[in-house]
TrEMBL record:
Function: Catalyzes two sequential steps in the biosynthesis of coenzyme A. In the first step cysteine is conjugated to 4'-phosphopantothenate to form 4-phosphopantothenoylcysteine. In the second step the latter compound is decarboxylated to form 4'-phosphopantotheine.
Included stretch of the parent chain: 382 to 602 of 603
Domain named DNA/pantothenate metabolism flavoprotein C-terminal: residues: 6-213
Protein family according to the UniProt entry: In the C-terminal section; belongs to the PPC synthetase family. In the N-terminal section; belongs to the HFCD (homo-oligomeric flavin containing Cys decarboxylase) superfamily.
Gene field: coaBC
Species for this entry: Qipengyuania oceanensis
Listed name of the protein: Coenzyme A biosynthesis bifunctional protein CoaBC
Annotated CTP binding sites: 98, 108, 125-128, 144, 158, 162
Region Phosphopantothenate--cysteine ligase, annotated ranges: 11-221
């Protein structure tokens, strides 16, 4: 195989959690570490791609050759993704919060004696779905699905619903989030391929190999 098979391609990767502000000092978040997305960005860059990595708040160093854009909330991630397009390939590994607070308090909320405040939530934009239906849809669009049950069936349904090419499904009922290994199912129109449990960097290598293969074959799946 060529040394830099993704040379000349722009690969967009999202990674990490989002933080949804409640007030200036508090937020809603999830357990995503960003490790899988950062590994994918690293492997895409190693394969010669120009890589834009839109990252939520994580404690990771930027892989060599990767152009990193830091964001906090889903709204900010949506804007950064939009700005980063067009791309040949987008791999959306971020664990975007489904909900954000309906109103963000400008001041730190106070304990005022009696009842604790109610958190009113509202739905966040689905970044992946809007990229899928947008004018600048990448030729190969890959989403992730963190599931705890019926992993493959839910992923296949999600693939169709969101209008993406592949869904990378993983079972997060164990300690995948924050852990160093991952077991993934690559869910495509043509079927499902399950990889062994591997370090996240090896999962990324395998996935980027599939991306290269698909681009070379004109990704007819
Ligand atoms: O629907 P669900 O959150 O399981 O979908 C997961 C996939 O969709 C991931 O690729 C994630 O990055 C993306 N997503 C998104 N914007 C959201 C929610 C999920 O881009 N608001």
């Amino acid at each position: 195989p060529e040394h830099r098979p993704l040379y000349g391609k722009h690969v967009l990767v999202t990674a990490g959690p989002t933080h949804e502000p409640i007030d200036p000092v508090r937020y809603l978040a999830n357990r995503s570490s960003g490790k899988q997305g950062f590994s994918i960005a690293a492997m895409a860059a190693a394969a010669g791609a120009r890589v834009t990595l839109v990252s939520g708040p994580v404690h990771l160093t930027t892989p060599p050759g990767v152009d990193r854009i830091d964001v906090e909330s889903a709204d900010e991630m949506a804007a950064a993704v939009k700005k980063a397009l067009p791309a040949d390939v987008a791999i959306m590994a971020a664990a975007v919060a489904d909900w954000r607070t309906k109103d963000r308090s400008g001041q730190k909320m106070k304990k005022r004696g009696s009842a604790p405040p109610a958190l009113l939530l509202t739905e966040n934009p689905d970044i992946l779905a809007s990229v899928a239906s947008g004018r600048k849809r990448p030729k190969l669009l890959i989403g992730f699905a963190a599931e705890t049950e019926n992993v493959v069936d839910n992923a296949q349904a999600k693939r169709k619903r969101k209008g993406v090419d592949w869904i990378i499904a993983n079972d997060v009922s164990g300690d995948v989030m924050g852990g160093d290994t991952n077991t993934i199912h690559i869910v495509r129109h043509s079927g499902v391929e399950t990889l062994d449990e591997l370090p996240k960097m090896e999962v990324a290598r395998a996935l980027i190999d599939k991306v290269v293969e698909s681009l070379e074959n004109g990704n007819e799946d």
